[in-house]
Amino acid sequence: MAKKVNEWPTTARRRYPWEQWLDGEMWELERGTDFYNTPNAFRTQAYVAATARGVKVRTTAKKNGSLVIQAYED
């Protein structure tokens, strides 16, 4: 049954350490530890985070479900 609520519900969002992961070094991120959605969905998040920081990112998914990322500048 529908009910009235007094305030808008908030959702807890996971904050990823993008400043660290987009430092130019290669990082292998493990699904289930470093991120929880699919590698393809997380890859999209990495591209968005890189664009917001004025860099580009290359990514590759590994067969074990992990994702390797590396930020770079043009």
Q: What's the arrangement of secondary structure elements?
A:
Elements (H helix, E strand, L loop, with lengths): L17 H4 L5 E3 L9 H14 L3 E6 L5 E6 L2
Antiparallel strand pairs: 1-3, 2-3
Describe the 3D structure.
- The protein is of the alpha+beta class and 74 residues long.
- The protein has one domain.
- It is built from 2 helices and 3 strands, in the order H-E-H-E-E.
- The protein is elongated and about 50 Å long.
Number of strand segments: 3
Number of helical segments? Answer: 2
Q: Specify the overall morphology.
A: elongated
- Derived from helix and strand composition plus strand pairing, the structural class reads alpha+beta
Structural descriptors:
single chain; three-stranded antiparallel sheet; 74 residues; 24% helix; 3 strands; alpha+beta
Give a brief outline of the structure.
The protein is an alpha+beta fold and about 70 residues long. Helices cover about 25% and strands about 20% of the residues.
